[in-house]
């Protein structure tokens, strides 16, 4: 009997797992939590599972497409930016000056993107940095510049921080001036919204309606029984059921 119960439980577990699909795996706990909250708020029956130090998000098979649309719209999971130390670590052969410039520009772009992505309500942050360029043939010098793109929600303070954002970028890039920093912002508009569930009344459910009718019938029967017993008690005491005439 015990083996039969164990086999039945295993079969149920396999059946339920077959109905779920792994949406994303190898996530950090913070990324998994953010993805889980985003999906749950939009009506997806998502679950988080742990495999050691990494996590996965599992959703019902019928909600897989909708879940993919939601996480794509919210730029999840967040991009992992590289630091200056990561970009310049493990160098082998001696790089040329052009390669060093390109690597430095990329590293600064990554650092600034990581900084701006930490502002409340920011979904995407991209920074493109061009360092100073000297053309030996013509002797011309092109000053550095930076272009910043930020996609944010309506509750984000980004629009009130544009001056501070430009100032941070100007101070992070060697030789860059405030007037050569361009910032473009985009307000996030949610397209995949939570489904609006219809308002259901108790009488819309046949079972609940039948139960309500049965309960009402029982109450009426109980009231009739109580009234009949009271009338019988009065008759046994010699009282007439008819009201006495007034004199």
Automatic annotation (TrEMBL):
Residues 1-20 form the signal peptide. One of its GO terms (biological process) is protein secretion. It is found in: Cell outer membrane. Gene3D superfamilies: 3.30.300.30, Hypothetical protein rpa1041 (3.30.70.1530). One of its GO terms (cellular component) is cell outer membrane. The keyword Cell division does not apply. It is a lipid-anchor. Keywords: Cell outer membrane, Lipoprotein, Membrane, Palmitate, Signal, Transmembrane, Transmembrane helix. The chain crosses the membrane at residues 207-228. Residues 21-185 form the Flagellar M-ring N-terminal domain. Its main location: membrane. InterPro entries: AMP-bd_C_sf (IPR045851), FliF_N_dom (IPR006182), T3SS_SctJ (IPR003282), YscJ/FliF (IPR043427). Belongs to the YscJ lipoprotein family. NCBIfam families: III_secr_YscJ. This is Lipoprotein. It comes from Candidatus Avisuccinivibrio stercorigallinarum.
């Amino acid at each position: 009997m015990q083996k039969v119960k164990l086999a039945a439980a295993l079969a149920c577990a396999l059946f339920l797992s077959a109905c779920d699909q792994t949406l994303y795996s190898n996530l950090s706990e913070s990324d998994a939590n953010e993805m889980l909250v985003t999906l749950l708020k939009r009506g997806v029956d998502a679950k988080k599972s742990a495999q050691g130090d990494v996590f996965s998000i599992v959703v019902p098979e019928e909600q897989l497409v909708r879940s993919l649309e939601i996480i794509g719209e919210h730029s999840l999971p967040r991009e992992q930016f590289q630091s200056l130390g990561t970009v310049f670590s493990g160098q082998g052969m001696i790089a040329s000056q052009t390669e060093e410039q390109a690597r430095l520009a990329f590293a600064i772009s990554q650092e600034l993107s990581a900084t701006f992505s930490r502002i409340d309500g920011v979904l995407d942050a991209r920074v493109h940095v061009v360092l100073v360029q000297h053309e030996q043939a013509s002797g011309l010098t092109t000053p550095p510049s930076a272009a910043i793109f930020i996609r944010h929600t309506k509750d984000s303070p980004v629009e009130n921080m544009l001056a501070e954002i430009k100032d941070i970028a100007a101070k992070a890039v060697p030789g860059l001036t405030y007037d050569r920093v361009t910032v473009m912002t985009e307000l996030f508009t949610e397209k995949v919204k939570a489904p609006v569930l219809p308002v259901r009344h108790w009488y819309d459910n046949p079972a609940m309606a039948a139960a309500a009718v049965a309960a009402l019938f029982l109450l009426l029967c109980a009231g009739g029984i109580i009234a009949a017993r009271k009338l019988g008690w009065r008759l046994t005491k010699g009282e007439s059921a008819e009201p006495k005439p007034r004199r």
